[in-house]
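Researcher: Next entry in the queue.
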Amino acid sequence: MHELLIAKISTYIDLNDQDKLLIQELFIPRKILKNEYFLVEGKVCHEVAFINSGLFRYFIDVDGDPKTIAFSKENEFMSNYESYLPKEPSTKYIQALEDAELLILHRDNLDRFYAQVAEGDRFGRKVMEELFVHYLKALGAFYTASPEERYLSLVKDQPELLQRISQYHIASYLGIQPQSLSRIRGRIGL
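Model: Structure for this entry, 190 residues:
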């Protein structure tokens, strides 16, 4: 169950056999069913998850209207770092869009990972740097690109997600109504 995780971590740092055994000890398997939550608003996030299989959406609730802000899928790390790092209540929800298998790393075990894996802290820094750049680009695109341009970017960068995510969630992610997404798709022939 840890093979995909170890392969992912190995793309950032070198792991010896002892590191691999420690990873198997620290990352605990957990299953989450479709529509269940990994995190809800108001709870402090104390875990980082590696998604072995499944798909999640991050969203905020604006006066009863959920606004999708991101997606995470297999072979990616998932957490609400905005809550995790300062140990403050989450302002976001993380919900499974599919049945999922996760490998969970609790805060205490992350500290052990950093301390006991030779390049563990370097790994953490590199993942955070990637996430930071990704979310800055997404935020910039939300303000500078049209919904059609953002949709075309999604089609280009993550076409497999279009078959797995409902039109409603895609429209929410783009900041438009589902009817507007239908018009965009009709106009570009997708």
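Model: The radius of gyration is 18 Å.
Researcher: Noted, moving on.
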